[in-house]
Design a protein that fits this description.
This protein has six helices and three strands, in the order H-H-E-H-H-E-E-H-H. It is mainly alpha-helical. It has a single domain, classed as Arc Repressor Mutant, subunit A (Orthogonal Bundle), CATH 1.10.10.10. The chain starts with 23 loop residues before the first helix and ends with a helix. This is Putative HTH-type transcriptional regulator YybR.
């Protein structure tokens, strides 16, 4: 199968270009960096989880959104779904090797942002004050 190419003149050396409208990498980036995708990938970095364990870990996500998120991440090869033939059925979710690499990079950003929150909050207060408060 031939690898699709999504390039323009500025990124001719890359086989995919997330900035190109039709490039499939854009959809995967959205799945990974969207609110529920990033939190789900981050939560799974600690190890496999069952659906309800994951839902408790990612506070605020609805059952429907978590299910959609897991399906998208599984389709992209970031999450592996393992269904056990037990009664009641047991389903575990875990990161694939690709998913672990994505999680490591994502958690690096998350930890950086958590460590920078004092600066962010000062900036927010300053911004809000300059614009009439919030």
């Amino acid at each position: 199968m031939e690898t699709p190419v999504c390039t323009d003149a500025t990124t001719a050396d890359l086989p995919f270009d997330v900035f190109a409208r039709a490039c499939p990498s854009r959809e995967t980036l959205e799945h990974v960096t969207g609110r529920w995708g990033s939190l789900t990938v981050g939560a799974l970095r600690d190890g496999p989880c069952r659906f309800n364990e994951l839902r408790r870990r990612v506070e605020g996500v609805s059952e429907k959104m978590l299910s959609q998120t897991l399906h998208a991440l599984e389709r992209d090869g970031i999450v592996h779904r393992e269904a056990q033939p037990t009664n009641p059925p047991r389903v575990d979710y875990e990161l694939t090797p690709l998913g672990r690499e994505v999680a490591d990079r994502l958690l690096s950003l998350i930890h950086f942002l958590e460590g920078s929150m004092d600066e962010v909050l000062v900036s927010r207060r300053s911004y809000d004050t300059a614009r009439g408060g919030r």
